[in-house]
């Protein structure tokens, strides 16, 4: 009996030695209880088990390489990734068709998103999500725009998700920003858009291919994806256009389609009129990407095929 008690004491002391106190953790746990009806002691214990990771801070502050799309594309869009997409599509053809029909999302787009996010499941991230979100909630780097509130909300949603889905929160892994599964869903997106396509009562974005494919399709559907429409429209600049407008790399939707003429962006004379955005798209915002020094594309697709952009772009 004495030996058992000694071992138990050693275990408790070892756990205490590795416990980590984070600034604001007690207030966070109290808010989890009052606003989300979570057990504050469980939240507190999970936070004590979370580790600050300098590598996550370093990844968040690392300057992004600023390449225009036409230079980035050959690095990212490779034969290997394309063949991987065809293989993934072939192996999951029935599920992809079902999700496409149910949610009204083009099947190739579902496949492309999973390929873009995790190389069809080849890299879903090796960070503990608990560590990632705790680090970015309580130790967000001061040298860049403060997004600690965003990650604090995601950390709270992570605890809610664990409660709803029965996830082992100390074991879940993902990206350094806390994105999870083959579709790289943040906790808030997991809660809002993930679906139980296999009917087992859980939404599993790591090992249930029906749930994975269905959730990606539902995410796009809920953001207004319109199936069967052209992805991009070719365009050309008028002679007096301000070309500096098209050199910026902020690809967030900003300009209504109806105002494209004010940007001196015109339908190419060689294109049929039906290839230009229809009048029904006039109120949608557009993203303009330079595919090469002489090629510009624009579109008014609803949604986020590439990180919250309303249109995807292709050659």
Describe this structure in words.
The protein has helices at 2-18, 25-36, 40-49, 54-61, 69-76, 79-91, 93-103, 107-118, 129-138, 148-165, 187-193, 209-222; strands spanning 127-128, 173-174, 233-237, 255-256, 265-266, 285-292, 295-299. With 315 residues, the chain is an alpha+beta fold.
Main sheet specs: 5 strands, antiparallel
Total of helices: 12
What gap, in angstroms, lies between the N and C termini? 73 Å
Shape: globular
Number of strands: 7
Oligomeric state of the chains present here: single chain
Q: If strands are numbered along the chain, what order do they take across the biggest sheet?
A: 4-6-7-3-5
How are the elements arranged and paired?
Blueprint: H1 2-18, H2 25-36, H3 40-49, H4 54-61, H5 69-76, H6 79-91, H7 93-103, H8 107-118, E1 127-128, H9 129-138, H10 148-165, E2 173-174, H11 187-193, H12 209-222, E3 233-237, E4 255-256, E5 265-266, E6 285-292, E7 295-299
Antiparallel strand pairs: 1-2, 3-5, 3-7, 4-6, 6-7
Helix pairs in contact: 2-3, 6-8, 7-12, 9-10, 10-11
In short:
The protein has 315 residues and is of the alpha+beta class.
Key features of this structure:
two-stranded antiparallel sheet, 315 residues
